[in-house]
Amino acid sequence: MKKRLLGLIMAMLLTLTACGGPEVLPDSEEPQSDGPVIAYVPLDDRPDNMERVEYLAASLGYQLAMPEPDLYRTRLDGQPKNENGTQCGDPWQLVQWVLAQEEAGCDRYILSLDQLHSGGLVNSRSETSFETALPNGGIIETVLLLEDLLTALSGGGNTVWLLDSVMRLAPTVGYREGSLEMYNWIRDFGTRPRKTLTGEELTIENIWESYWQGPNQEDLYLETAEAMGAVSADEVYGPMQNVDDSMASRQRKLLLTDGVQKLLSQPGFEGFRLLIGIDDSSLEDCIQKNEIAYLRQGLRDGDWLLSGVDDLAFKALARLYLDDSGWTGAGAAVRYYGDSEHEPACDYDFQPLTEIMAEHFAFFGLTEQKDAALQVLVLTQPAGEGQKASYYNALIADLNACRKDRRPVILIDAGNGRYGTAFHDALTRETELGWLLSYAGFLDMAIVTGTALSHGVARYAVLQRGGGDQAMERGFARTLADSILKDFCYKNVVREELLAYVRNDLGGDPNNFWTPDVDRNAILSRLESGMDAAVKDVVRNLTQSKLLTDLSPSLLSAPAPYKEGDWCAIALTDYGFPWDRAFEISMKIQLGSFPQSQTE
Question: What are residue 74's phi and psi, to 5 degrees?
């Protein structure tokens, strides 16, 4: 009776603090991990590559060392340049930073190759030069820069995860004067079928030729030029200039990745792992097809090529922890709701969701088992519009049954926005969100899959080892809260209002607040007020939830085969737009003290 009364009092207090200003720890009292240091060069400065990686690292007991943000920041057209005078990161300075970490004794690395050879993902889609600028005005061949760095890291028992990508079908709109019209032309060109190369035909030179030829030797160059308005041979070059430049970037990108694969195949690089993500793709028999096949044949044991790019750091970090902790794999049961799991989950996937899931299961050492304790619940796009509610209600019923049956859950929203806010509202009303191992639903579905599984499997491994210390628990709380709050509250609620406000009230572009230059303080004020209203119910749900704290095998024979505790207070501050666009936001998640863990 006393325990129940105490629980009710705690719930009331947490509700009051969530609504009226939570009591949170000052930064000076925030627990810090004293675990191993990972030197990390991000893909760019978006939240998925910065603070969310920091949260995940903290939840696994790591310290994350990162360069100054200006060295890996991306700037869109019209925005202030970085200190190096460009719109992209500074590969030379980043290499020097990594070498300094090696000199200081670091032995774990997660390094984005797109950042180290191109200054970030966006620039890698547009860069054609094979030379890297030096501070003194000189240059160095990019291939040599990478080779020198990786060779320097090859000794001393280092563990090095290298993150790379298969270039998407078209460059970025609003970068290097890329227009939406040109993006559509280049993407259309990329989606056209190519000849399938196999065996001895599968060479880089033949892949480059295949960019311009259809499966029956169709001249895609001329076909595209005519579609773009060229009426004579003399007019072909003008409209095709941007397509030519994009293909040159593809050639460069493939050659650089091939060079890294060849280097890693040599003795001395056994501690390196190459993780290649397939950037925005297409179900069509597209331009990426032969590139993917070529890179697959160059993978060593322990290297991977998977769908998704923005989740690469999550996957590498989770896999690094699993390896460090002696993970031997686990069984997991997968249940789909929506009846479309055998189709690509969105226009930017080239595989059905079930195939993407299977490949990620293999990466994390998961085996699908119907009776497994670990549950993965996936809401797909609805096969029938009139059945939306029945799909997500069935998932919610099973989620609550898992809670009752003590089966931990990884929850994936692969509905691609088709359920609007209804699914999220129902989850907030009817479930205990803070009890989840992980949740993802914000981005394209290949990325959502990798995000949810990396967060969830890593947390499951921590709990099987008896749980973490205060710093790890707080890192996990931020990891889960960030995923839920941004998807539930920003993506489908606040962002929609902001898009209309920027366009209609300010006459601006939601994809870049600098073209034209609009009142960014007014946009930020709208964001703050919108989020303050939108997050209340979700924050209340989280703070009134229980938190899984221990799933170690020693508890299996106990009356309660796991331990759980109460959540802490949550406050959200320091909202921002990392790229001065409305697509995504950053925010600081401040936490109160965790109450003492208890066994149910």
Answer: -110, 135
DSSP class per residue in 229-254: T--SGGGSHHHHHHHHHHHHHHHHHH
pLDDT at 20: 46
At 453, which helix (H) or strand (E)? helix 445-464
Rounded to 10 degrees, the C-alpha dihedral 252/257/262/263 comes to: 100
User: Binning pLDDT at 50, 70 and 90, where does residue 221 land?
Assistant: confident
How does DSSP classify residue 596?
A: P
> Could you give the CA distance from residue 265 to residue 83 in angstroms, rounded to a whole number?
37
Give pLDDT tens digits for 276-297. 999 987 666 899 999 999 999 9
Q: What is the 3 state secondary structure string of 125-178?
A: CCCCCCEEECCCCCEEEHHHHHHHHHHHCCCCCCEEEEEEEECCCCCCCCCCCC
- pTM of structure: 0.93
pLDDT tens digits, one per residue of 444-466: 667 899 999 999 999 999 999 99
What whole-number distance in Å separates Cα of residue 146 and Cα of residue 152? Answer: 10
CA angle 63, 459, 429 (to 5 degrees): 120
Residue bearing tokens 């926005």: 417
Q: What span, in angstroms and rounded, lies between the C-alpha atoms of 211 and 207?
A: 7
pLDDT reported for residue 233: 52
Residue 386 has a CB neighbour count (10 Å cut-off) of 7
Q: Name residue 66's amino acid.
A: M
Reply yes or no on whether the pLDDT at 4 is more than 60. no
What is the number of other CB atoms lying within 10 angstroms of the CB of residue 515?
15
Q: In 3D, which of 377, 369, 424 has the Cα closest to residue 400? A: 377
Average pLDDT, the chain: 91
Strand partners, 140: 132
| Of 493 and 22, the one with more pLDDT | 493
The number of beta carbons lying within 10 Å of the beta carbon of residue 523 is 21
Residue 19 has pLDDT above 60, yes or no: no
* CA 515 – CA 153 distance, rounded (Å): 42
Q: What is the secondary structure of 274-338 as a DSSP string?
A: EEEEE-S--SSS-THHHHHHHHHHTPPTT-EEEE-STTHHHHHHHHHHHHHTT---EEEEEEEES
Tokens at residue 55, please?
A: 């949260």
> Which segments within 409-553 are labelled E, that is strand?
409-414, 438-440, 546-550
540-590 pLDDT tens trace? 999 999 999 999 887 766 556 788 999 999 999 999 999 999 999 999 999
Residues 6+ apart with CB under 8 A from 512: 76, 77, 78, 79, 174, 579, 580, 581
